Amino acid sequence: MAPTKKKKGTATALKGPKRSGPGSGPKKKKSRKTEDNPAASGSQAGDERKDEGDEDSGSDQESDSGPYCLCRGPDNHRFMIACDKCEDWFHGECIGMDKYTGENLVQRYICPNCSDGKRYVTRYKKMCSLESCNLPSRLYDPQNPSIFCSQEHCQAWWEHLIKTLPRNKVSSLDNLTRMEFVGLLDPLPRIPGQKPSSNWKLGDTPFDIEPDFWQKVDLKVVLTQEERDILETSAAERYSKGEEISFRKKMLQIIEMGLKQREAAIANGTLPKDVCGYDTRLDTVGATAQFIAFAKSPEGEAILSAGRFEPPVRTSLHLTSVEPDATKGVMCVKKKCKTHQMWGAILTKNVKHLIRVLASEAKEHLDAETRLKENAAGRYLRSQLENNIVTRFDSTDDDEDSDEEVKRTDKRDNAVNDVEMG
């Protein structure tokens, strides 16, 4: 078959490969010039200039030919996923991940090269709790968080759970029927006089502690010596943290005084607008021991009670070359001061952060004390209800009484044994 004739004066430009997801696009190949056709060379020159423009714009972009992945191969239009640490791309086939999982269930992907098994690991989204569903749950939905992907699957899960329960009592075992279980889930009526939709409801908390319980009982009876020591130590630590928080709040007052002093000096024209304005009396802010000593001194108490700084005795461009006065102070009047740059915001932020940390630690102590006291109260109420008696045998003044108790116990046990043998 004869080859097809080309129309005179035209040329065919070679097309580059198509662009794919991970790469931003390959460089286009230049078309060859036809030396034997002068008319075609003119037309091809225009195409060549166009290709050169495309080549220049994509010269700094990576080609789709790779290398990518662990195999260091090209894209080849296969499913690929990017590592969130090294930002390299990996074929799903090479890392054992299908396209659906990569696009829907992966929260953060870390490649095998970057994974350390601790901090940098691949994170997956929580899947729907319905066994037959492979969709991600709405656990991170701020409006309606749920361990199910939809309300329909939530309803289906509950229906399946209820179907596993018997309709009627089949034995004397303490098993719930379907009606009893649904009754437990039914919320109590909030409107006075309204009757619940079911006769079944959750009972009161076992051994419920009354509000005035600790005022009516003897602590030595309810709490052991070890528990009393723990509570005493924890309360002392809470008090110490509370004292430290109060001093931190006084630090904020001192910082506010320094800011007001700078603003007043700028307002009355004593200092220019862009001056530093740092006062050496702020040096103790952030240093707990030094500030407590300053706050308890007569000079510190006078400053805190007055709510303002006395005017500084002098100003200086170099505070490091002068001895600061704890009561009078020296103000820095340097412009664009790098040493005290944004001193007001930084000091305030640091002190507030420390206050939050101390408050959190104090709350942890209080929560631990509450849990310990609740457990001790529940143990005491349970022992009162069960009427249990614990006899101690130790080296105290009541040794004789203890021996008498042991003898009575031995006689009772021997009598029981005689009856059983008879």
UniProtKB/TrEMBL annotation:
The keyword Methyltransferase does not apply. It is found in: Nucleus. This is Set1 complex component spp1. Keywords: Metal-binding, Nucleus, Zinc, Zinc-finger. Residues 53-63 have a biased composition (Acidic residues). One of its GO terms (molecular function) is zinc ion binding. The keyword Ubl conjugation does not apply. It comes from Rhypophila decipiens. Transmembrane segments: none annotated. Residues 1-65, 391-422 are annotated as: Disordered. GO terms for biological process: positive regulation of DNA-templated transcription. GO terms for cellular component: Set1C/COMPASS complex. Residues 10-21 have a biased composition (Low complexity).
